[in-house]
Design a protein that fits this description.
13% helix, 291 residues, 32% strand, Thrombin, subunit H, mainly beta, 3 domains, 6-stranded antiparallel β-barrel
Length: 291
Amino acid sequence: MFPLSLLFGFYFVQFSSAFFGTGGIFGHVLRYQKLCLCRCGVSGVTQFPDSFSNVRLLDGQSVSPHQFPWLASIKIDNRTIAGALISDKHVLTAASPLYGIPPNRVSVTLGLHDGCTRNPALSSSIETVILHSAYVSGYSYNDIALLRLRHVVPFSQFISPICMPDFRTLESDQVASTLSWKWAPNSVSCTPRVATLPILPVWTCLLNRNSDTITPNKGCLGPLGIKSIVCEDDVGAPVMSRQPYSSSFRLVGVVTTANCDHTSAPYYTKVAYHAAWIYEQIRDDCQCFSI
C-alpha cells in the first residue's frame, strides 16, 4: 500500500496540474512533473542469483522473462538497438543510431522477452525522434535521445519504467548492469542478456582513452586490459544500478561508445547530467514513484 504522504502528493500534483496548467509559471518555477500512482524500477524477478553482481565477461547472463520490464527493443530499418522506458510516452536511448532517421523508420517494442518467437508484446510507432539539441553527428558529446511514442503505454508487471537517477545515485567505485540483445560479434541472442561491470573513476577513464573524448557527461565501465563484452551494436543500451538504500533500479547512463574488438573500455552518457533536458521533454507524461 502507498503511504498517505504519497497519496497526498499525488492529489496535490493533479490539483496543481488542473489549476495552474503544465505550461504555466507554477510548472516552470517549481519544475512541475506529473506523478502517477505507480512504481518505477521494479524488477519482474524478486530474487537474483548470488552470482548476479559478479556476472561479467563472455556474453553476460540470460535474463528471466520480464526481469527488466523497462527494456525496449528499438527497430531502425534492419537494425535493432536497446533503450529504456522512462515514462508512459518516452523511451531513452543513444542519439547516434537515430541521427537523420525520420520517425516512420523507427518502431519500439516493449514487454518483449524472446525476439525469435515474438512472445506477446506491445509494439508502438514513433511520434517524434528527439535528439539532444547539442548533439553533433560524429562526436560522442551529448549522445542521448528520446523517442516519443505515438500512444500512451499502459503499465503492467510486464511493462513499466525504470527510475531516473537522484542525488544519492552512486557512480564511481560501484557496479552497474547493462543489458542488450547482442553481446558477441556475429551472434544475435533471441533473449536479452545482462552483465554487471564496475564503474570506473574519471581518472581511470582518462588513462584508458584520449582525454579529448572525455567530457563531464561521460562515464566508463571496466574492467580494463581485456576486450570489452559491450559491443558497437549495444549502443543505446541502458546502464543501471540498484542502490543499497532502495529496491528500485535507476538509470545511470546510456551506452554510447563501445568496441568489443579492442581493449578500450565502453563509455556511456550520464543520464543525471542531462536530467533537466529529459524532464523538460517528459513533463506531461505519467512518471512513477521510486521506493
